[in-house]
Amino acid sequence: MKRSRAALRSFLILALLFAFSIITMALDCSSCGRKVKGRYLKVDGKAYCGKYCYEKTLPNCAACGRKCTKGYFKKAGKYYCSQNCVKTTLPRCSLCGTPFKNGVKIKSPSGERVYCPECAKLPKCFCCGLPNHCRKLEDGRWICPNCYKHAIFKQAEAQKVFDNVREKMRKDLGIGTDHKIIFKLVDSKFLEKNSSNHQPGQELGLYKHNYTIKTVTETKYSLLGGKKEDTKSYKTNDRYYIYALYGVPKYKLIEICAHELAHDWMQGQLSNIKDLKIKEGWAEYIAAAVNEMYGQSKYNERMQNNPDPVYGGGFRFINTYISKHGAQALMDYFKRLNEEGKK
Ligand SMILES: [Zn+2]
Ligand SMILES: [Zn+2]
Ligand SMILES: [Zn+2]
Ligand SMILES: [Zn+2]
Ligand SMILES: [Zn+2]
Questions:
Q1: Percent of the chain scoring above 70 in pLDDT
Q2: How far apart are CA 74 and CA 130, in angstroms?
Q3: How far is the CA of 283 from the centre of ligand 5 (A)?
Q4: pLDDT tens digits, residue range 30-77?
Q5: Ligand 1 centroid to 328 CA: how many Å?
Q6: Nearest ligand to the CA atom of 75
Q7: Quick one: which ligand is closest to 130's CA?
């Protein structure tokens, strides 16, 4: 009995060994799954038919797409074949394109962009607000090459833009006056000197309504010798001016003209509205509508995101008012404000 037990144990051990050798002989390739025959490749305890099968299991570089045959770098769950390919994942400077680790975020009317520390130090364009290799205009404004390319310096060219915007506003928006408006390109010094509420970067144009106040005193005598004086004053000799900065790209000049012409319309219809937020908000609202008419509504993000409480706040107020109550309700509201303003 004892003997046969020992014999059984040794048989079992033999049987186990046999099974093991069968398994080792029937290795599957970890890549293609076929049985491995003859010479094979072993990597990290796994068997492969050969180099070809092994390389097939390697990850592709997330940047250049090649197989990472010479090792890889892992970043944010992705594989890269080289340091150079890792570099391509770094954010790039919006201006010079160099990848960087510590970029500088710059907010401008046209959105937020990131720059390398060097480019971030460059002067910012007066028009688009972004740093660039700007040139200096005579009045000290910096202008970037992109804006400079489309900038208008000639009065005659600007006048054409102005006339076109005025015509389109009258025809398509029903907003216009018969005022004889003198339109002129000016420099920033002129604009600063002549705007009462100048905010750099907000107004690139200016609307002015000048007039002469005449006072007439009528004296009436009654039959009994009493004297009654009646003084009346009235506005006369109205002059209307719209000024816009020279060296502004055409798209922006369109916007400026629309903004200032909206002021002119309000002056003509509702001259007693004093609230700056309403006045500027309305002008910005019309400028946005005109941008849309010219197929350049991408510039309306500036109004929408403008943090200024008068310009941005005013624009959002008008915009919300119209979408909630409609354009007619806004006109009624304007009329009420105008009546209140008379008091
Ligand atoms: Zn294989
Ligand atoms: Zn690569
Ligand atoms: Zn840069
Ligand atoms: Zn610019
Ligand atoms: Zn304005």
A1: 90
A2: 35
A3: 6
A4: 889 888 878 888 888 888 888 888 888 889 999 999 998 888 888 889
A5: 76
A6: 2
A7: 4
Q: What is the dihedral of CA 82, 87, 90, 95, to 10 degrees?
A: -150
Spatial distance between the Cα atoms of 130 and 112, rounded to a whole number of angstroms: 9
Q: How far apart are the first and last CA of the chain?
A: 125
Q: What's the CA-to-centroid distance between 120 and ligand 3, angstroms? A: 7
Residue 232 vs residue 257, higher pLDDT? 257
Ligand nearest to the backbone CA of 125 = 4
Nearest-angstrom CA–CA distance, 49 and 54: 8
Answer positive or negative: Cα dihedral of 273, 256, 281, 168. positive
Any idea which ligand is nearest the CA of 204? 5
Q: Where are the domains of the chain?
A: 1-57, 104-149, 153-342
pTM for the whole thing? 0.73
Distance (Å) from CA 187 to ligand 4 centroid = 17
pLDDT at residue number 199: 64
The Cα 245–Cα 185 span in angstroms is 5
Ligand number nearest CA of 88 is 2
CA of 14 to the centre of ligand 2 (A): 51
Q: Tokens 């890792």 identify what position? A: 86
The pLDDT assigned to 13 comes to 44
CA–CA dist 159, 271 (Å, integer): 26
Q: How far is CA 226 from the centre of its chain?
A: 71
**Element spanning 310, H or E:** none
Phi and psi at 123, nearest 5°, equal: -65, 145
Q: Looking at the CA of 32, which ligand is closest?
A: 1
CA of 47 to the centre of ligand 1 (A): 8
Distance 133 CA to ligand 4 centre (A): 10
> How far, in Å, is the centroid of ligand 1 from the Cα of 41?
10
Question: Count of alpha carbons within 13 Å of 269, Cβ hemisphere only?
Answer: 17
Residue 128: φ, ψ to 5°: -90, -15
Quick one: which of 86, 29, 30 has its CA closest to 63? 86
Rounded distance from Cα 106 to ligand 3 centre (Å): 12
- Range with lowest mean pLDDT among 9-13, 122-126, 204-208: 9-13
Q: Which ligand is nearest to the CA of 99?
A: 3
